[in-house]
Protein 1
Amino acid sequence: MGAGFVPKSRTVAVRIRVAHLYPDYLNIYADRGNIAVLARRAGWRGHDLDVTALSIRDSFRPGDHDLFYVGGGQDREQALVAADLAAKSELLREAVDRGAAVLAVCGGYQLLGRSYRDRDGRELAGVGLLPLTTVAGERRMIGDVLLECAWAGRTLAGFENHAGRTILDDGAEPLGRVVSGFGNDGASGFEGCRVGRAIGTYLHGPLLPRNPWFADWVLAQALAHAGGGEPPELAPLPDDLERDAHEVAARRARERGGRF
Amino acid sequence: MRAPLRLEIAAARAVAALSRLSGRGGGTTVPGKLLWKLDPGAIDRLAARLPQGSVLVSATNGKTTTATMAAEILRPRMSLAHNDSGANLVSGVASTLLRSDGAELGLFEVDEGALPEVASRVRPRALCLGNLFRDQLDRYGELELIAERWRGVVDALPGVRLALNGDDPQLGALAQGRKALVFGLDDPRRARPSLQHAADSKYCVACGTPYEYAAAYIGHLGDYRCPACGLARPPLDVRGRDVELHGLESVAFTLVTASGDRRVRLRVPGLYNVYNALAAAALTLALDVPLDEVVAGLERFAPAFGRFERIRVGERTLLMLLIKNPAGANEAVRTLVEGRRPRLAVIALNDAIADGKDVSWIWDVDFEPLLDGLERVIATGDRAAELALRCKYAGFEPERIELIPSLERALDRGLAATEPGGELPILPTYTAMLALRKLVARRGHVRQYWERAA
């Protein structure tokens, strides 16, 4: 139990059910840090995070989970899970139709698109949840990233490391505009993809510790599904350390964010 | 017309001397870089001049310690050109070769990414490969790529004597169908109850099925077997048995080889140092060094540059434990916690190229066993704020986190908070370690690394 900052007075405790997809395969970018942040911030508001690992051949029912999290891995690990994830596609799409939230980082982001073309030219089917495709590229896009998210009036600071170039469909919403960094494909000037309560992004770092507004946004989406209403306003937390870390990361991005 | 090698060497050495005089580092890589730019082939020719050729040591964790242990073993029999300050890219090897007049054998630790280039130029007669872990993902992209390139290195050196860590599935695979001295641990009492989070090679290199472990020692290192296709750890030629851990002071084990068994007591602690010792033993045994000399060398070895190094500062001692990646940091934490649970620790996180620009790895380190026993933690370095968050989300109360980005102020604060006669553990990343050593050296407490006797 961490130190409690906010009295639990009027909050009705909610059990937020998180499905962590393939945590043993897709975990190369400190994804457990994201889960830890969600768990603590939920706890400080009086809620509980209940994380279930869903791995190869594990099934679930739409409605079982409020938030799906899927991280990134090496090419090899991604190839090992791609078929299984594709087999879960229908269930995932139905869960999302019913209002479940999704946070997909890096490899997970790619696999949630319509398709992924690897270095040998083979086309792998994605989940078809996000309106995008990805093509494996020659050059890796590595570096600090700073995004402006106009839809939230906030910035996101992270770190990207991907050879895949992700192309959004016409009309698809990105996560944010690139201030520094490569973004989805090193050309479009945008990063990530946002559809309702589903977010895909190349940003790790991990993403949530130094972007507390976004961690809370994700939590609020999950709470909306759990409670059946609109995303609630969460009690503010003393996020001084988080703000410091965000500032440092943002500065890094401006200084040395990726460029070809 | 290219200048004769003599002139190039003279020019590069002049640069080295200037570099030292101007106080800018030990000149351990600048002259090498210069030489390399003037004439890349000079490295090949300098290496070819060594009467006994060269041996290379590479690994994600333990290169410096393994190479220094091997140097200690070999020192009595021949003079070495050894990059003992840890400059392990091509330029660092070049610099060492520049200073190699009179040396008989080259002994180089080499960065995992630089191994292909160095090996193709130096053409070593022996190669020691210790382990592959996730490290500095922003530099390499993927561990698998390095494994592939290492395979290429071995293929391109048909006569090379290999010493391989069989406990690492990637390296055990390299041993298949090749002549090699395979080393590993054989002490299931030291195994972990389950596979650590920092296990980076969990899936069978042949068929992708998760390995089963009879004993998992550190990360993915251990006695593994694929339940589907049967791929398993190769038989061990050099093994470590009956390991006794003595806190922060030392570790003892029985070295088991084809020429006999010997009890070895190292002057450094931790299970990971048994692996380093096995690596150095396998490498030098592959060079036909008698077993007694191997043991004598291992027992003479004192902590290498920044790795569990003790530095006296007035009435207190700094205990410097370099951290670079989850697997290595876990071992530093484990050894600290099993030795003497400290109440105060300093963690220093930089993100320069040599540290890794991507700091996400600190979230994959199991800091919790250390944090659980600390009263206070001092977070310092360029990314101190990220460290502070790591501690906060581990459940550490923010009031007990001291966020002091300035290394100098953090050092002073840590020392002030340590009792006279006490030890202050510091866990720095690479450039933070260099900066801290420089700070302490300026105050007269440790010789600059380029002043150490050869």
Protein 2
Amino acid sequence: MTAAIGLLALLGGWEALVRLGGVDPLLLPAPTQILEALWEDRALLAPDLWTTTYEVLLGLAAAIVAGAALAVAMHLSPALRRALRPLVIGSQAVPVPVIAPLVILVLGFGLAPKLLLVALVCFFPITINLYDGLRAADPDARKLLRSLQAGRWQALRLVEAPAALPAAFTGLKVAAAVAVIGAVFAEWAGAERGLGHALLTANGQLESARAFAATLLLFLLAIALYGACALLERHVVDWVPAGTRGRP
Amino acid sequence: MQIEAEAPLTGAREVGAAGVELEGVDAAYGAVAALRGVTLSVARGEIVAVVGPSGCGKSTLLELVCGLIEPAAGRVRADPAALMPQRDALLPWLSAVDNAGLALRVAGASRAAARAAAREHFAAFGLEGFERARPAALSGGMRQRVAFLRTLLAGRPVLCLDEPFGALDALTRLQMQRWLAGALAREPRTVLLVTHDVEEAVLLADRVVLLSARPGRIIEILDVELPRPRARGDRAVVELREHALRSLGETEA
């Protein structure tokens, strides 16, 4: 409730500032102007929204598959852990805006480079949170499984993987929130569609309101993805009391 | 209550043979010596309680018997043993019935088969109606009963119970001790019961092993030749308890 009031006050202040001539609308359009652009350019922006959503969902899916495989491999094999950990951490130091053009150069203008860049941004939180979660299983439960002569795979399936789920969802939610960034950088580096592309062309044409409308859509896309993950988490991780859910 | 054991309690093996045998066993965790020179023989069907101050290597003894660790010196021989870890170690995402049937799942049974086998015992364990409840929704006593059922369903002739009632309030603890005595009377097994509660040991066990502070050595083994059921107020129980406490050197503390 207070959040809604705060948001309304902020938007009201913003609107007044622009309408009363405090800022050039070319630099900062008023909220109503952004909504107007969103409505008027809906035929233009809708396919872009779809393209970016598609890229983000596929990239996120690729990151989940690769991240989960990597986390499990690092968990099961100390040798792989030593070999891969520096690479996993180092991957986060890769400046996405700088390598995006290179990736486009190699992989072309299609879906592949977008997918790769989204996955690159997303897989770190997924891998690290899942890896930590796998190690956090109750030592007594591990001991119990060992006393039952459970194999390594059984211990993973029956105890470690379920125990890792809350942490895995934390990673997934972080990934969902940042996935959009990867898609936008990839589109900036070379694309004919997508919200990142729309943002770039709108800027070039000094259509600030449309650029902001595209940004608003990115903002909403990230929130929707996060919300979907949180909803899924509530269904899957239904044994953790609501108050503590999501904390690894 | 009929639960099949993997190995028969009697039968092909000679009657009265040891279910668990330790000979001059030393155990260590890294540089820390946990047990020193422990020699102990537990007959099949016998209930032996192990009592000692915390950190004296009681749990280590059970890990040796369950084959989870190797002795640093000496020899350990035991029939297949099932462990009930100190905290119940119930898996929070599984229902009570799935937790109880966990050993069967590990042994290769399908989820449905494990569930069916576990469900049969729920009434006898006072858990009827809680089959689908998660551990978080169960009382402390119920959690321990689920954990005990899980241990029984492992189908091993030896049960290693590590402080099974340590986390319970005094009243529940008393009820559970009575309940466990009844359950073991109906379903005899070789039992190693680790506890820090001397009275619990005297109430439940055929013999009580007193361990010293770390590294744990056997101070004394008490025979509890008292008829069952035993009550806390019985003079013989009180006398044995006081004797044990004196031996452990806790009465002056």
Protein 3
Amino acid sequence: MNGILRTAVFAVSLLLPVAASAAQTQYQLRVDGLACPFCAYGIEKELERTDGVESLEIDINAGTVTVTMADGAAMTEAQASRIVEDAGFTLGGFEEVRTQAGNKPE
Amino acid sequence: MRLVIVRLRSPCFALGLFGAGLAGAAEAHGPVFSPAPETVWKGGTEVTLGLHADRAAGAGEKEKTYELFLEGKYGITADWEIGIEIPYARKESGGDEVNGIGDIVLDTKVQFWKRDLPGAQYKAAAFLKAKLPTGDDESQPRLGNGSTDVIAGLATGYESRRWYWFASGVYRANTEGAGGLEKGDRQFLNAVGGIRPVLTEYDEPDTVLMLELNWERAGRDELNGSDLADTGGWELFLSPVFWVTYRQFAFRGGVQVPIADGLNGRQATSDYRARAELVYHF
């Protein structure tokens, strides 16, 4: 019985690190001045060039950009602000959303 | 100043006295026939391939111009861009026909004010252009002015997800070219309203419709210091324009329809001007 219990605890302890390392970070940027899709392409271009950015989604009608980072990568608000300003806009809000890989934001 | 009556063949050419006087006025997502306060993003490049056509008739003359132009712009910062436009024109007047490189234009623009709101933006910019004497000014009709001309102006505008408006004022100072001919200085005032009829998503084609009101005035031309009759005056145009964009591509165009004029003496008046452009930025 003790042997079975020890085996079970050992198996669970192996699974935990795997689950934790799959966490990706997402940021939602609220971008003021975002009115035109053709102009917004500049934000897409700037973000794609940024280290650690895995994917992004622009919602032109909501005025938001959702950025998904690679495992272990992060973005600061100052970094996001610089990127948005270089694209010709103003950062109106910056929110971090932490999620598990493959899942929608909690 | 003494008024001299000299009948030059095609005296008001260079695109019918006014023509595409703003030389590369169009911006990627602004009006087609007048300037906008937009600039390319920092490190961005915008390339435009365009076609301009115009026809003027009257005073016993019929003039046509077809101009293919290649324009490039680069964003030094998000608020400062530089550019160059290279035109290739074909001109017909009074039975004569000529084609070749026209006057190359170098330009710079600084966006000095901006206010960003959720889903909307106000902007204002100042720009400066130099039209170089690279076109043949001895051909008949002339491909170039034979002089270095300076163009300066201000543009402001508002864009939102649904509505647009722009306003601009431009001054073009012409200098004396070969043979002692100096074209009259020009002034331009423009007002534009626009609408995005359907709000689409970011990765879908986007269409905007606009209506421009373009007023142009030119001073009299001078030949060796004396004013030339049958030159100068003003024209007013109503110009429906559109643009359709998809990702980093844009297709835009429009037509300028003359609705009023106050031209001096006997001159060919504009029948129409049309413009179409393909724009790509990266």
